[in-house]
Every structure is written in C-alpha cells, then in structure tokens.
Amino acid sequence: MPFDLLTALPTQWLGYAAASCTTLSFLPQAVLTLRTRDVSGISASMYGAFTVGVALWLWYGWRLGEWPIIIANAVTLALAATILVTKLAADRGVVRTGCSEPG
After folding, report:
1. pLDDT tens string 34-63
2. Which of 8, 23, 67, 78 has the fewest beta carbons closer than 10 A?
3. What residues does each domain of the chain span?
4. Which of 53, 74, 70, 62 lies closest to 15 in space, CA to CA?
5. What pLDDT does residue 97 have?
6. What would the mean pLDDT of 15-38 be, rounded to a whole number?
7. Is 63 exposed, middle or buried (0-12, 13-18, 19+ CB in 10 A)?
8. What does the H/E/C string look like for 2-13?
9. What is the pLDDT of residue 26?
10. Number of neighbouring beta carbons within 10 Å of residue 37
11. Cα–Cα dist 50/47, whole Å
C-alpha cells in the first residue's frame, strides 16, 4: 500500500494546518489597517457579521474542547475585532485616515 500523507497525519494536525492558513491570512490586513488607518474599502457590516461568527466558532470549539478550533478562532477574533474597531472608530471620525479634506 503506498504512503498517503493525508491519512498518515493525525486529524488534529490537519486542523492545526488549516487553522494556521486561515488565521494567518488576516494578519496582513490587520497590520495594514493599524499602520495606515485606511479603512475605506472595509465593510463594517461584513466584519461585524464575521467577528460574531468567529466568536461563535470559538465558543463551539471551547464546548468541544478542540484546541485547533479554539486557538485559530481566538487569534482570528482578535485580528478581526481589531479591524472592525478601527473601521467603526474611523466611521465615527475618531481615527484619522491620513487623507486631508478637499479644499
């Protein structure tokens, strides 16, 4: 029987690998948002719904005791919430975006 990497890996490690990929995908956006404060292309409603969804996944993982789900969603929640809070603050005029007013 030939060696199959996917069946040789423990299921939990597949969870960690998947969680790492999806969670780390938010890091560049969070860093860019914090560095530039440019939130013009970010939808507050999308990030609001996403942040709530991630919080629910975190709770789900906690209830199951599944560490890949817990860790991934805790980190993703922190990153998504950072972007969401920055967007909401900018929409209220609390955060300067670096753009000057015309005129």
Report:
1. 898 888 888 899 999 999 999 999 999 999
2. 8
3. 42-87
4. 70
5. 52
6. 87
7. exposed
8. CCCHHHHCCHHH
9. 82
10. 17
11. 5
Residue among 33, 28, 34, 17 at smallest CA distance from 72: 17
Architecture of the domain defined by 42-87: Up-down Bundle (1.20)
Whether residue 87 contacts residue 34, with contact meaning beta carbons closer than 8 Å, is answered with no
What's at 6, amino acid-wise? L
* DSSP letter for each residue of 9-45: S-HHHHHHHHHHHHHHTTHHHHHHHHHH---TT--HH
Question: What would the two tokens of residue 86 be?
Answer: 């920055």
Per-position b or e across 71-94, b if 16+ CB within 10 A of its CB = bbbbbbbebbbbbbebbeebeeee
